[in-house]
Amino acid sequence: MRKSFLALFKKDCRMLASGKFFLMAIGFLALYTAYVNLGYIRFMQMPPYNVYLYDPAGTQTERSSLVQTVPSMKAMDTALLADANGVGLDASAGDVRVVIYTGAKHVDRHRTDYALSLLHPSDSRAPAVLGRNTPKQKARKEITCELLFFELAAVGFLGIAAVLFKEKGMGVIRVHAILPLQRNLFLLSKLAVFLLSDLIFAALLTLLNVGLEDGGAVLPAVLIQTAILSLMMALVGLLCALLLKDFRQFTLAYLIIAVFAATPVFLSANTSVKFDWIGYHPFYHVYMGLKNAYFETAISPIYYVGSTAAIAFLFLAVQFAFRREIGKEV
Amino acid sequence: MRGLNYQLKSVLRDKFCLMTFLLPILAAVALDFMGSIDMSSLGELHFGVLEHDLSPQTITWLERYGPVSSYETPDRLTAAIKEPSTNVIGVEADGDSFKTSIAGDELEIFQQAAATLPVLYERREEAEQAKILMLKRPDILESMQGIFIPAVMIVAMFMGCTFNAMNIISEKEDGVAFVNEILPMTPGQYILQKVVVGFLFGSLSSIVTVCICFEMSWLVFAAMLALILLSSFVAALIGLFIGRFSEGLMIGVVYIKIVMLLFIAVPLVCALIGVSGPLAGICNIVPSQPAFDGIMALSAGDIKTAVKDIGILAVHGIAWSALYILIQGAPVKAHLHNL
């Protein structure tokens, strides 16, 4: 049994290599790493509002060093136009007048009050810091988690399906009906190959983008979550490959997953936009499991029970579909 | 014309293919119903307080700046502050004033806000007297939902690309591509037949999407139509390129993913960050950027920008088809020589 499993495993690896699956994974790894290190970290910065003061008479003597003075109203207009989040203070007519471009109501009030407070600065009290991550660490963990999820749920999933459809098209699945092998070995070797490649991918992505020290600390937890997600996606991919007629039909199933499953999950999990119904979304829990692993937050045991049950259920479904598929041949 | 008939027939038989084109329309309907997604809260400050800790006046004052949530126990408050997806600032009473707490991983702007909040509270009376001149922002969206609808439309237009690429790849795998090469057909005819199907369905589904999401005048509709037709055409052409350069299904899928990512990411990033200057010009190389920009301009009622974007798309259409005819011609000859 072990020998035949190894033979199947080797065959699957060769098939993936010839389908350029590994090459694609390495390509995406390079792309993601470049994006995180060269792009994302730079985008995710939001300095405090710039405050521009026009004060020809020099009345505002106490002002904080954060206030930038401008020589004329015209200069202030250009500054504000280029930096629509900035706040202009016009002290030329005695009383200070605030000039801003309107945005969200609450933010406008805060910008205004903040700018005025800079004219008479007093010691700001540093807030208590409760967490351990710096903004940079958080940004790295967050984007790595998103990319890993995207890779496993979307790109990897598509790769799995492409390989399986090829096998189906060539009739390999039906050949297994007459091979003297245990039926489950076919499924298990597929799962093992994809699991292994996903785990290696996850480890490399985490270490390269979160950093050796931080990434190493969260790696065991991340790998457990990766295994859960990878098994689920591989099983869903197998199920699609067995049930759907051809690859084109599969792209529809894929689009539904990509558009309807991923978007609300990303919104709810990463921004302050929260939907009431998101708790019923299965992907949300899987994504939060991954995210909690990155941020070292405790994960409830109910989640593990639920995901194990889901994997078991999917496996049974795949087994059933597989038997039906080879049954056509016997 | 007869070739076109065959193409259409084969597409209409494939129900899944038709559903692919219906998908963006479904998404548009869903967006229309879910119009209540409130994205304006993204840049706001959020405060977390303990129940019965701060005075009602202080809470009312905090609510001037953003929503306030109250938590029963300090543990829950701490968990809410640490939660990485939000930027909750914890506020706890401290004598006459209060003290703030943060997770430490927030963007600088939120850290600064937390640090200065007690000062703002002490100055609250002065601040209320200030005179404020509100200027209207020239090119900012009322809400983030304005970005979603063009994004769905980009996906709708993109359908033609996916379909064409898949179509050509499956022809390649079935060997029909070789038959095509020796048929008495000019590159122009070939392109026309292949493009038309993806183009027709891509633009149809975008038009329906537009009708669901926007209410507009005839002039705006005409401009929108031009945008849709041109960008669906370009998308269908790009589908031909992908089909041409991918050897198998797998590689084709990778190409489609990359192109789809670029198509959606470039305009979204440009819109969110507000790219300007030469970089904005470079972004126009991705055809979805002028399409997205044009749709945004039209939803804001800016016809002039839309006309500029229509021009850019027209250039795209001409350039891509010329390029395709150029590369299409070469291998056919080579192949015939081999024969």
Largest sheet features of chain A: 4 strands, mixed
What gap, in angstroms, lies between the N and C termini of chain B?
Answer: 29 Å
Shape of chain A: elongated
Number of strands of chain B: 5
Question: What fraction of residues of chain A sit in β-strands?
Answer: 5-15%
Taking pLDDT < 50 over at least 5 consecutive residues as the criterion, the unreliable ranges of chain B are 139-143, 332-339
Low-confidence stretches of chain A: none
Q: Which bin fits the share of residues in helices of chain B?
A: over 70%
Q: Measured on Cα atoms, how large is the radius of gyration of chain A?
A: 28 Å
Question: How would you characterize the overall build of this protein?
Answer:
The complex is a heterodimer of chains A (330) and B (339). Chain A has 330 residues and is mostly helical. Helix content of chain A is 69%, strand content 5%. Chain A has helices spanning 2-18, 21-43, 73-82, 105-117, 135-170, 172-175, 183-210, 212-243, 247-270, 282-294, 301-327, and strands at residues 51-54, 67-69, 87-90, 97-101, 128-129. Chain A has a four-stranded mixed β-sheet with strand order 2-1-3-4, sandwiched between helices. In chain A, a hairpin with a 6-residue loop joins strand 3 and strand 4 (97-101). The longest helix of chain A is centred in the middle third of the chain and has 36 residues, at 135-170. Chain A starts with a helix and ends with a helix. The mean pLDDT of chain A is 81. Mean pLDDT of chain B is 76; it is low at 139-143 and 332-339. The longest helix of chain B has 36 residues, at 303-338. In chain B, strand 3 (88-94) and strand 4 form a beta hairpin. Chain B starts with a helix and ends with a helix. With 339 residues, chain B is of the alpha/beta class. Chain B is built from 14 helices and five strands. In chain B, helix 2 runs parallel beside helix 9 (187-213), helix 7 (145-174) runs antiparallel to helix 11 (249-273) and helix 13 (288-299) packs antiparallel against helix 14. The radius of gyration of chain B is 27 Å and the shape is elongated. The chains are: A mainly alpha (330), B alpha/beta (339). The interface between A and B is large, with 82 and 79 residues. Strand 4 (97-101) of chain A pairs parallel with strand 5 (131-135) of chain B.
